[in-house]
Amino acid sequence: MEHEEVASTPAGETDVHAERRRLLALAFRMTGTIAEAEDVVQETSLRWYRLSAAERAAIVVPAAWLTRVAGRIALDVLKSARVRREQKVGQWLPEPVPAEYFAGTVTSGSSPVQDPLERVTLDDEVSTALLVVLEAMTPAERVAFVLHDVFGTPFDEIAEIVGRSAAATRQLATSARRHLRERRSVAASAQRHDELVRAFLTAARGGDLQALVRTLDPAVELRADGGDVIRAAPNVILGADHVGRFLLGLLRKQPQLRFAERRTADGLGYALSSSGRIQGLVSFRTTPDGIADVWLMLDPARLGLWRAEDDG
Q: In this predicted structure, what is the pLDDT of residue 13?
């Protein structure tokens, strides 16, 4: 049961509120969207307040209880979301978030693994580059990795969440780390990233295909996600020449688009606006050789953070 711990001190009514930001960061890493993460946190809160006062008082570490419950709920949400995403026509991208949106949320109430041989170091920021790799994992691998390697949850507790033994859960995390290592590449420095991204925009605005191609890695990939509302490229666009031509064609069709620099969790990116309203967000993964990934988020449902930031 979720409340079988014996407490030395009563749990206060503010426990859920105090932990909300951390739980949201946890759930977002598991689901890849703010809306689904909010649903996870809301359901976790409801389960906490459904407990009697005596049951809440019997919980030794409310943060640990909330983490386990949120993990169980997120696993169910992730399984359901995986089916929907596989059936989706076109590309699916995780929701891009502003830089530092989740800063400071990992260590509160947790003890992340410190052994560098056991832990893949992650920034507090949540990048599209990372979330794309997490999306390629099985739901159980993703939950084990996020809970253990990022939030420091012991394997025996994660085992209860995923319904496996502690040894099997340890293997899930090991497999997840292998996925991450296989897909990681040398990233450009922050300065080099900014140089590439600004040169990219200059070339795109000027309609200079050759200059645009020079900013791109030869094996660059472009993914566009318009949700169920905006028509976007249904398939991944591969290669510098194809990506360059696609982007220049897009700008010719929509000359009214305006670009404003925004700091994303992946580094410098651009908000795309028309008639004073943000219509999209483009972010990038860069290597020393050029822009390796272009992610174009056009789904209105996943631009809320950027519109709120712009309105603010």
A: 54
Select from 77, 111, 136, 105 the least CA-distant residue to 21.
105
Q: Give CA–CA dist 302/280, Å, rounded.
A: 9
Query: DSSP letters of the chain?
Result: -TT-PPPSSPPPTTHHHHHHHHHHHHHHHHHSSHHHHHHHHHHHHHHHHHS-HHHHHT-S-HHHHHHHHHHHHHHHHHHHHHHHHHH-SS---PPP-BTTTTTT-SSTT------TTT-----SS--HHHHHHHHTS-HHHHHHHIIIIIT---HHHHHHHHTS-HHHHHHHHHHHHHHHHHH--PPPPHHHHHHHHHHHHHHHHHT-HHHHHHTEEEEEEEEEE-TTTS---SS-EESHHHHHHHHHHHHHH-TT-EEEEEEETTEEEEEEEETTEEEEEEEEEEETTEEEEEEEE--GGG-HHHHHHHH-
Block residue for tokens 């890849």? 32
Find the distance separating the first CA and the last CA of the chain, reported in whole Å. 44
Q: Which residues pair with 127 in a beta bridge?
A: none
Residue 172 near residue 137, CB atoms below 8 Å: no
Q: Which long-range contacts (CB under 8 A, 24 or more apart) does 233-238 make?
A: 233/90, 233/91, 234/89, 234/90, 234/91, 235/90, 235/91, 236/91
Question: Quick one: average pLDDT of 254-271?
Answer: 95
The size of the chain, in residues, is 312
The model carries a pTM of 0.86
To the nearest whole number, what is the mean pLDDT of the chain?
A: 87
